[in-house]
Design goal:
Blueprint: H1 2-19, E1 28-32, H2 40-56, E2 59-63, H3 69-82, E3 86-90, H4 95-107, E4 114-117, H5 123-135
Parallel strand pairs: 1-2, 1-3, 3-4
Helix pairs in contact: 2-5, 3-4
């Protein structure tokens, strides 16, 4: 039984290691950390995004909003205008503010690579959001 469990774990680790291998090569992702340069929370999010970008092989443009919803909206508008392959946003402005902008991103062919991070965001969640952007590439 122990041997079967070890073989299963080995197979899972190999699958996880190859499932995300450089699927973001040639892609540019704009990533709003939410916070400020050097603040505790924003740094955790930033580090997760950087690690995922390295794992995925994509170019990362980090944005810092100082937790200001209007700045987050401005960053999103600028990202849509720049036409990156993916955008990761914080959800602080809310659905009413982001809804029309996400619709515009879809019209520009950016979505479904638009990912949002709400709530308790950690390095792991930041990495998963960036992976979601890269994995949506068709």
């Amino acid at each position: 039984m122990k041997r079967i469990l070890m073989l299963g774990l080995l197979a899972l680790s190999l699958l996880c290691g190859t499932a995300f291998a450089k699927t973001g090569e040639g892609m540019t992702i704009w990533f709003d950390t939410g916070g400020s340069v050097g603040d505790g929370y924003g740094t955790i999010v930033q580090n997760g995004a950087k690690a995922a970008a390295a794992d995925m092989g994509c170019e990362l443009r980090l944005l810092y909003s100082d937790w200001n919803p209007e700045t987050m909206i401005t960053h999103f508008r600028n990202a849509v205008a720049a036409r990156p392959d993916g955008i990761v946003v914080m959800g602080h402005p809310g659905d009413a503010a982001f809804g029309p902008l996400v619709d515009a991103a879809v019209k520009h062919g950016i979505a479904p690579r638009v990912s949002a991070m709400w709530g308790r965001t950690t390095t792991r969640r930041a990495r998963l959001s960036l992976r979601k952007c890269c994995a949506a590439r068709t």
